Amino acid sequence: MNIVLELFVVTFKVLWAFVLAAAKWLVRPKEKSVAGQVCLITGAGSGLGRLFALEFARRRAQLVLWDINTQSNEETAGMVRQIYRELVHTYTCDVGKRECVYSTAEKVRREVGDVYLLLNNAGVVSGHHLLECPDELIERTMMVNCHAHFWTTKAFLPKMMEMNHGHIVTVASSLGLFSTAGVEDYCASKFGAVGFHESLSHELKAADKDGIKATLVCPYLVDTGMFRGCRIRKEIEPFLPPLKPDYCVKQAMRAILTDQPMICTPRLMYIVTCMKSILPFEAVVCMYRFLGADKCMYPFIAQRKQATNNNEAKNGI
Questions:
Q1: How far apart are CA 234 and CA 244, in angstroms?
Q2: What percentage of the chain carries pLDDT values higher than 70?
Q3: What does the pLDDT average to over 185-212?
Q4: What are the pLDDT digits (tens) for 31-55?
Q5: SS3 content of the chain, % helix, strand, coil (to 5)
Q6: Cβ-contact 243, 224 below 8 angstroms
Q7: Is the Cβ–Cβ distance between 87 and 136 less than 8 Å?
Q8: Angle between helices 47-58 and 70-83 (to 10 degrees)
Q9: Using CA atoms, how far apart are residues 266 and 256, in angstroms rounded to an integer?
Q10: Which of 84, 91, 116, 186 is catalytic?
Q11: Is 220 a catalytic residue?
């Protein structure tokens, strides 16, 4: 095709994509059914993972729950059974360890079947300034928050590719789109997860596997206790409070079940990401300081340090 003609076609397709996106804002797309489908959730023992499990149970999905904490994972399974009494499968798995992921994935295929929806949710935070953070914790953060997505996807994507049917969900963070001080390892891991997800989405498109969907979830600070103590400027905080976990998960579920490629919660995060991309760095710094976002993690880090010191004193270390 003549390149000029092709340029016109591409321009039309781009404009048409805007039209379709606007239409979805005006007319809510119908949610797909996941009833009977095998849905695997990592980090299902608490926080968002537990809430995702309950939401999928309400939609009668066959759940496979992974968590490093066996007790909390079984507690989630108990909650799920109160909603949907069909069999729920629980597995103790450290997603930060490649061999553990692959061996547990093989058990799932053998005992449950092929996974249709993979929800990579497991996450950790070290809570230390860079120069005070042990190397082992930095490596742990990268392994769980980023590398684990590679291992789980490599374990379950081949069958999805074969069937041209599946859905991969990456629970990242707004800190995977823009960063702040004091959580370098966490931001790096979430930026990595976002980059992995976007590249994977392009690879699926390049392979013409349109039956495999991918959804990137990037919430603002969620009130799960993971970042307890984090504070922005007190005058701004009423307008941008931490998200309620239930609200965050319901918004994410809507995006997942309508095959939305990406969801930022609240929508203000889209604007922040855009501004970060086009403004000079010094302008971004000025905005951060005005909002109190430049040192918002410092109270959280101080609390974590105090808690660590208290535990060491209690144990006589």
A1: 18
A2: 96
A3: 97
A4: 999 999 999 999 999 999 999 999 9
A5: 55, 10, 30
A6: no
A7: no
A8: 30
A9: 16
A10: 186
A11: no
Rounded-to-integer distance, Cα 313 and Cα 310, Å: 5
For the chain, state the CA radius of gyration.
21
Residue 39's pLDDT is what? Answer: 98
DSSP letter string, 206-274: HTT-TTEEEEEEEES-BSSSTTTT----TTTGGGSPPBPHHHHHHHHHHHHHTT-SEEEESTHHHHHHH
- The distance from CA 70 to its chain's CA centroid, rounded to whole angstroms, is 21
Of 61, 116, 112, 108, give the one whose Cα is nearest residue 83: 61
Residue 113 has pLDDT above 90, yes or no: yes
To 10 degrees, the CA torsion angle through 79, 81, 83, 85?
A: 180
Q: What tokens were used for 119? A: 């929800």
The pair of structure tokens assigned to 115 is 């996974």
Pair 263, 255: CB distance under 8 Å: yes
Question: Lowest mean pLDDT: which of 10-24, 91-105, 161-175, 260-274?
Answer: 10-24
